[in-house]
Amino acid sequence: MIYKQGEIWCVETRNTGYYIAPRGPLAEQLHYGRKIRPELQPLQQKISVCFGTDVIYDKAVDPSLSLLHLGLELSPTEKGDFRQGALALRSENGDPVFDFRYLEGEILSQPPICTDLPQAHGAKECLVLRFSSPQGMRAELYYTPYEECDTIVRHMRLINETHSCVTLHRAMSFQLDLPRQDLTLTTLTGAWAREFCPQTTALRRGITCFGSTCGTSSHFCNPFFLLSDPQACEKDGEVYGFNLIYSGSHRGSVELDSYGMTRVMSGIQPDGFAWTLEHGEFFDTPQAVLSFSDQGRNGMRQNMHRFVRAHIVPDQWRERERPILVNNWEATYFDFNQKKLVSLAKKASELGVELFVLDDGWFGRRTDDTRGLGDFDVNLQKLPNGLSGLAEYLGKRNLNFGLWVEPEMVCMDSALYEQHPDWIVASPSCSPSFSRNQLVLDLCRREVQDYLIEQLSQILSSAPIRYVKWDMNRHHSDRYSASLLEQGRFSHAWILGLYRVLKSVTQSHSDVLFEGCASGGNRFDLGILCYMPQIWLSDDTDAWERCKMQTWASLGYPQSVMGCHVTAVPNHQTLRSSPLESRFDVAAFGLLGYEMDLTQVTPVQEKAIREQIAFYKEHRTLFQQGQLLCLMAPTPEKGGAWIVVSEDKQQAAVLEMNGLLTPNSAQPPLRLQGLDPDICYQVCVRAQGLELSSFRSLLNHVLPVRVKGDGLLVHLADGLYQMPCEQICYTAQGDLLMHAGIRRPQMFSGTGYNEGVRPMPDFSARIWLLTALNSEE
Ligand code: GLA
């Protein structure tokens, strides 16, 4: 809800409020946090004298007012606010002074449509605050509340009504001044195969900057970040979450000033950015997402998950079930032909898989990663019957067909490069640097965008393709485009070019399920999610690594957007071997797929996979659409735990994962969250087994005959039999489960084993399923 109370502009959601009031020609930030009944007098910053070196903003307005002491929605530049502000700009004559003065506010029914950028949808109303500088430069700040998600979306529009050119050097999406300095900062950092590692730090006086410079939102630092009360935990405490609806290089910053304020900003990466506006032109910053909760990190999860589901992912996918897929990448890499694919597909369909995804290597000269990118003609040596032939076979097996593409890139060894060597991103002064043997196509150029739109449309019409994995496998270097007069535009213009392609292709094929990917999670952001309702989280599918990543990624993103696959062991990225059932247990709390050679599994593994798929199908709505909460953030000492609860609280599933096992250790109760205290639940551990080979010579303690632990007999038996896991099933009230918790069984520790003991090696998992006793399911 947006309203004006006296002088105060109030932007409120169900539990939060953002309050702003004009102070002379400035817009003062009064409060952002828990919703309050705002009053100007108590909320205004008290300033009645000026101190020592203060720069007085405007004597005529207030002889004691220095910008440094105020929380400001927009800082006039070069007027004495020595904190970094949202804007840095220069007129044609080099003048950096822009005294932005507040003119008026207005409540609109919608934020303006920025045709080039992805935007949140479903807004009901929007506040705009208008500012103007004496030269005629105008700034408009937009505030759009999303009531039920306790989220406010902000962005800025800059309009050049001066009589000369104005160049933007920094144009952040928002600045927010909070009158406290005790918050800790959490960013989600990483690299390839190790996305979403949290970094939490207490803040010190000065500016802390983070973000990306590599052309994507990046695995180095996701645009989502968190500021929390130092005491905040999963369940309690005040937390602020921030994100950007943007996929390019970005920057977030937090500045602790000398007067007790914390300034938060986020937006397009200003390093190297320069965007000149001619008279009459305007510039829209990407939208930024702000959210507050006093219910700890899980409160933030609830806000962000609701927001992404309802206002970011394309509407038609909002509640649509996502298929269980098999992907041939880790099963075959580039080494496949029709026969191999057909036998993988056959097995997958027998096991209950619904979608077959053909990954990299199906086109042009692509026999390895040194060649072929850029071309879209089917490699008939590998697929003599083309894509439609394969799709036809899959159709007979009740499998939908999905295809991998990497449209933004080109290899020198490709027909595209031979025809258009000038379409690559490269400086005229030196030859470009390679990454994974590929170069970046210059998406600043309209003809390159048009080529991609055309090629993708052709491919999508050439066969019944129901799903596309849209990959992008390198960072940007050598940034220069012959199509641009101002190279400071490059990164943003390139992303706008990508958005034009994405918009055109996804809108004209709105029934195709698109999954974003960038060497895993190198472009896992809200911009991409506006076009593609899901993204491959990471190339690393090791169960423990995924447990950590899924937990931390879930701070900003719901599990309904995360591609999660069960892969072979030893894991191709970590060489770690965790049990097949545990790999499933973790992947089930996302969009399930299998990415392993299903034709090579043993009968016992086959049975397990068939049961996993049936289990997931039975509870798919819960796993994909339920509210995910973190019960215990994963550490190697204690392991980790989550719960996902259905909207009506009739069903829940808990993931419990081991870290490094300590023998004969205490098993503290696991307290659940998010249940209905008054519902009586049936609580059962999902039946699963453990490979005999985990026990090897220990089998001699339970078998009547003697076997050799690493002998042929154990090897053969391993494919046929499993050790059952502990069997637990009882009923308990929601309040008991939340306040007393689940008492966990003893772990296997060498002495004694029966059906009450848990054989759980390091980094293995269990799912507990909770079903309301009166539930219809
Ligand atoms: C990237 C993706 C993988 C796979 C390969 C194919 O690394 O993240 O899933 O598609 O490309 O080359």
Structure description:
The protein has 777 residues and is an alpha+beta fold. It is built from 15 helices and 38 strands. The strands form 7 sheets. Strands 6, 7, 8, 9, 11, 12, 14, 15, 19 and 20 form a 10-stranded antiparallel sheet that branches. It has an 8-stranded parallel barrel with strand order 21-22-23-26-27-28-29-30, surrounded by 5 helices. Strand 3 (16-23) and strand 4 (26-34) form a beta hairpin. Helix 7 packs parallel to helix 8 and helix 10 (543-553) runs parallel beside helix 11. It starts with a strand and ends in a 5-residue tail after the last strand. The structure holds alpha-D-galactopyranose. The site of alpha-D-galactopyranose has 11 residues, from loops. Alpha-D-galactopyranose (GLA) binds next to loops.
Count of DSSP H/I helices:
15
How large, in whole angstroms, is the Cα Rg? 28 Å
The main sheet comes to:
10 strands, antiparallel
Q: Would you identify the regions where 5 or more consecutive residues have pLDDT less than 50? A: none
Identify the bound ligands. alpha-D-galactopyranose
Q: Please estimate the helix content.
A: 10-25%
Mean of all residue-level pLDDT scores: 96
Number of strands: 38
Shape: globular
**Structural class determined from secondary elements:** alpha+beta
Cα(first) to Cα(last) distance is 37 Å
What is the beta-strand fraction? 25-35%
In short:
The protein has 777 residues and is of the alpha+beta class.
